Every structure is written in structure tokens, then in C-alpha cells.
Amino acid sequence: MDNATTQSAFLVAAQVRNGAVWSMDDSLDELAQLARTAGLRVVGRTQQYVRAINPKYYVGKGKVAELGLRKRELGFDLVIFDDELSPGQLRNLEDDLRVVVLDRTSLILDIFARHARTKEGALQVALAQYQYRLPRLTRQWSHLSRQAVGGVGLRGPGETQLESDRREIGRRISRLKSQLAQVSRHRDLYRRQRKRAGIPVVAIVGYTNAGKSTLLNRLTGSNVLAEDKLFATLDPTTRRVSLPSGRQVLVTDTVGFIQKLPTELVAAFRATLEEVAEADLLLHVVDITHRNAQQQVATVEDVLVELGVGDRAMIVALNKIDKLSDPERARETAQHYPNSIAISARRGTGMQDLLEGIERALHAQMARITAFIPYEAGSLLSLFHAKGVVESETFQETGTLVSGRVPVWYLAQYDEYLC
User: Fold this and answer.
1) Bridge partners of 58?
2) Burial class of 356 by CB neighbour count within 10 A (0 to 12, 13 to 18, 19+)
3) At a CB cut-off of 8 Å and minimum separation 6, what does 275 contact?
4) What is the pLDDT of residue 226?
5) What pLDDT was estimated at residue 152?
6) 111 to each of 8, 262, 317, 358, how far by Cα in Å?
7) At what angle do helices 24-37 and 104-115 cross, to 10 degrees?
8) What is the CA angle 213-215-217, rounded to 5?
9) Structure confidence at residue 166 (pLDDT)
10) Most Cβ neighbours (<10 Å): which of 139, 180, 307, 375?
11) Contact assessment for residue 286 and residue 337, using Cβ atoms and an 8 Å cutoff
């Protein structure tokens, strides 16, 4: 994009001293990457340690005055804050600075609006945008002429909705929730059919840009979009993968996580993230080369806990080892992560080890059951012998009483025969 038409952005962060896991420098680096992903040109940044967040401006009044001076000096189009701002803070900052003010949440929503490819993804992004903008409809925009050409923070369903009344926005939110409920029911039906078929599901999770889509492409030979950008892919993609034993599994690439993930997105993407909740195994992809790898891992684990799957069986794929100058570092790092395997999704290194690890982890998920299987349902007894562990078996007049362990993803097939 030509610099003459590219919007310029100035980044701002504030932090209560010793109040965060991420340093402000690292968090602002990530915000800059988000801004570039949204098509913006970053022209400067500033940060401030504070005793407490200023309820009026988020940063101190002196920092606001400094931003005014920097605006006259650099002539930027946007100021982007690294945290979510309240409606009042947004209004006060825009009144004082006379420039568009965004926060991390609205920037991420804009990126999601760019990358939604499916109807479901578009619905989820629209819902998140409306829910975010509803309490901000009172903003005093003196530069609404910018809406004529759009721009970051004004993309998607919000271009005209900033002037709409709350009642209309509320009606649109209700309609979107209804449509997404239908999507959720469809997904639930699909998951039940999948369980009856006995196909285990592996959900790829990880920090955005860790290499999840590249790994899915490597495992399946597919061509899912994989770019060196945050949130390059948004909509979940599911593909079949053959394990070393020949067994088929479904591998789903889910939306990447990020620190300070907007609550609106977690709520709006519930239908998609249910794929994570319903998975038999999580495959956590970690960019081992990133200087904030440990913080990224902690962020992903926090989101998984929020989704109620913090205790789900998991394998950690330590990705991008091809970028390490010292291969020993990968082996040393792997010792700090349980059930971890060092790989390069781009080069294909470690894929056999990873597939074998997936198979072992799935095989370990066996449930103990006792079932009376009628002779006319003999295929289920054969399945028990082929895929499970038979501990006792008694042949009776109308069927077979069998006890043992079967993989958890086959349980649904035995429901009506359990004793």
C-alpha cells in the first residue's frame, strides 16, 4: 500500500508498575505488528508507568499533552492504546487530541473483519463489533467525514452504525445471536455424528503466528493460508490425517490466541471455540524462537482455562526449530514442557515423532466400561476387540457381556448397551 494513502498510527501504552507479565516494550512491539497487519504505518510510540490507571484519559494528563505535541510534529491519523479504553476515556481523548483514538480491542476487531472468509466468521466478527461499539455510540466524532473512505476502526458493519440508535443496534445483536445459535446447533449435530463414527479430533491451539496453519498444511498436504502475520487465518479448518497405525483423525486449526484477547471475541467465537472444548486432544503449537515464548504459552493456557479445557490432554509442539542456530536449545527447551516434541512445520522436521506422539496420547485415553452387546450388534463386539482392551467376556443366550477399556471417542456407540 502506498504511504500516501496509508493511515499513520502512534502507539501508546500505560502500565501499573510490576502489574503485568509482559513488558510494555514487548506488548507495544506486538501492538505495532497488529497495526501493520491492519494496513497501518506506525510512526511512533510512547509508554508510561503509572501508580493507577487514569479514569479520565487512561494515561496521565501530561502524557495527553505530550501526545498533542507529537501529533503536531508527526501528523498521524490515529492514536492506538495497548489496552481497552472505556467509552468515557475514548471520548475525552478524542475531544482533547482531535484525532481518531482506537484501543487494542477495536484494532483486533478490525483485523478479524478483514480476515473473516466464511459466513460464520463474518457473523461472529459482526456480533463482536456491535457488542463493542454499542456502549460507545455516544462518542463525539468531529471527523466523521473519514467514514466516506473507511479506515481502521471504521471497517465492517460499524461504518453507519456509529450514528444509529441503541435500539437498532440491539435488534441487530439479537438477530446475529439467533443466527449464531443456529450455527452452534449445526456444529453440535456434526460433532454428534462424528462421535458416532468414532473419529477422534485433535484441535491445534496456540498463540497467533506460532505456525498452526503451516503445521496443518504439513500434516495434511492442504493449502490453508499461512502468512507471517497475526491472525492470517480466522475461520477454523478441519482436515483428515492418517496416524502411523493407519487410523484416521480429524485435525482442526483454530483461531490464534493473543494476550488481552477481547472478551467480545471470546464470547462471539464461542461456537468456533467449542471445537476446542469438544476435542479429544489439544496440540499446542509454540514458536520456540520467540523471545516471549513463555509468556505466550501462559496466555494460551489462561484462555484454555477460560474455555473450561485447562485440564484437557495436550501435546506441545515446539515449532520453528529450523530457525535455531543451536539444535541443542530445542532439546533443552523441550525438557521444560511436558509431552513436548520439537518440530519444524515449515521443513517437515519431527513430523513422524509428532504423529506417533498424537497416537500415543489418544491411545492413553481409554474408558473402562461393561456392556451387554446383543448378537445382532456383533460389529460393536468386533470393534471392542480391535480398538479396545477386553478384560472379561461371557457369551450368553442373546448376547455377550464384555468388560474392558475402549477409546473415549467410541463411547457414544455403546451408550444403549452399557450395564
Assistant:
1) 54
2) middle
3) 187, 201, 203, 236, 238, 252, 254
4) 55
5) 65
6) 16, 13, 26, 32
7) 30
8) 70
9) 74
10) 180
11) yes
